Amino acid sequence: MARTQFQNRIEYYALRFIVSLMYFIGRPLSLLFARFAAFMMFYFIPIRKKDVIGGLRLAFPQKSLKEIKKIALAVYNNFTAVFVDFLFIPKMPVEKLDEMLIYDRELIERTLAQGKGLVLLSAHYGNWELSALSFAKKYQVALIVPNQSNGYVDRMLNEFRTQEGFHIINFNKNERIAFRGIVEALKKNKVLAILGDQDAGHLGLFIPFFGHIASTPKGPAVFALAAKSPIITAFGCRQKDGSMKMKTEILPIPNTGNREEDIKIINTIYYQRLEEVIREHPEQWFWFHRRWKSRPRQDNIS
Predict the structure, then answer these.
(1) CB under 8 Å to 6, separation ≥6 — which residues?
(2) What is the pLDDT of residues 90-107, one digit of tens each?
(3) Is residue 65 domain-resident?
(4) Residue 116: which CATH number?
């Protein structure tokens, strides 16, 4: 059923009210409220709860249902905490943001010194918005964002991101124009921050993820190969104090002479690394997404 303008407005003003309320009570109280909200959503408003538990059971078949449910509740807690941190980003001074992201700065600087741009390939893990924003305060960051179903919320989020220093590229509006904009941004030595961990449908590349075939987006690899840009995988783990400890590693660009094979190699390495960090802290990944929903045609299986 299509959304109505009335529904969009109600959702938009409800979000504005929540933001104003949280600013009024402050971040510490907002984080406490977020834990309560996570508890209520998990037990009484179980939106996507079946998807979260189903994904966890698929990925961790050796764990008991009790263990799975404990992780699932932690997933809700992490998500609401990330939401609060996202709302308070505009209130944080640049110095505070800089302190909250711990990563290998020398690796980033050395890679950008090549002058070929950088594909920073991350995931919906930890606090991905905070990680991207911290980079935007130090480097020129281009951010690929999808359209939200609610146009009011979409404009609100993009205005926020633009004000905070991001160069926004909306890939949904015109993919050909967006592709040119992405390659141009990389050739201008910008950092392309992209999340590559969601289902890509039947057009995606199907490779193993937690022992099950999953549709993976080709975009990050295609962009890097087109612009001849290096790739760094970056996964920021949220710490107890709200800071982010990011694991950054160069992803070697293959040159097999076969473009599709190169894309496959890049995606395989990325998903192997992503699986490793998720296994360490499964509660920090966005399990609300139905990651294994698309099934491959026979000729799409890696």
Answers:
(1) none
(2) 788 878 878 888 999 999
(3) yes
(4) 3.40.1130
**Is 227 among the domain residues?**
yes
Which of the pair, 144 or 153, is modelled with greater confidence? 144
pLDDT of residue 11: 77
Query: Could you give the CA distance from residue 128 to residue 123 in angstroms, rounded to a whole number?
Result: 7
C-alpha span between 297 and 301 (Å, rounded): 7
- The model carries a pTM of 0.88
* Residue span of the structural domain in which 256 resides: 5-289
Is 70 a member of any domain?
Answer: yes
Q: How many domains are contained in the chain?
A: 1
So what's the pLDDT on residue 118?
97
pLDDT in tens, 17-49: 888 999 999 999 999 999 999 999 999 988 899
CB 270 within 8 A of CB 196: yes
In a domain, 300, yes or no: no
Question: Exposed, middle or buried, 13 (CB in 10 Å: 0-12/13-18/19+)?
Answer: exposed
Instruction: With CA atoms as reference, report the closest residue to 63 among 53, 78, 73.
Output: 53
